[in-house]
Amino acid sequence: MTPESNGRARTLLTDRPELYEARFPDPGRLAGRWVEDCLRRHGGGPRVLDMGCGTGRDAAHLHQANRRVTAADLSEPMLAYARARHPGPEYVRADLHGFDFGPVVFDAVVCLDSALLYCHTNEQLDRFPQGFRPAAPPTPTGCTSWPVSPGRDTASLFFSHGQKEFLMHDDSVSPLPLDSRFRGLRRRGFLAATGAASLGAFSLAGCGGSSDGGDDPKAGGTPQRGGRLRAAFAGGGAGETLDPHRANLFADAARAKALFDKLADYGPDLAAHPRLAERWEPNRTLDRWQVTLREATFHDGRPVTAEDVLHSYRRTADPREAFRAKASLEPIDLEASRATGRRSVEFVLKRPTAEFPNVLAAFGAYIVPAHSDDFDRHPVGSGPFRFVSFAPGRSAVFRRYDDHWDGAPYLDEIEFVVANEESARVNALLGGQVEYAHELNPTTARAHEGKGQIDIVRLRNSAMQAFCMKTDRPPFDDVRVRRAFFLIADREELVDAALSGAGETGNDLFGKGYEYYADGLPQREQDLEQARFLLKQAGAEDLHVTLDTSAVAAGFTEAASVFRDQAKRAGVTVDVRMGSKDSYWSDILDGGTLSCYRSGAMPIESHISQRLLTDSTTNATHWRHRDFDALYRQAQSTRDTKDRAAVYERMQRRLYAEGGFLVWGFADWIIGTARRVRGVEANAPANTLDWARFDKVWLA
Question: Could you tell me which residue ranges the Solute-binding protein family domain spans (predicted)?
Answer without folding.
Answer: 273-603
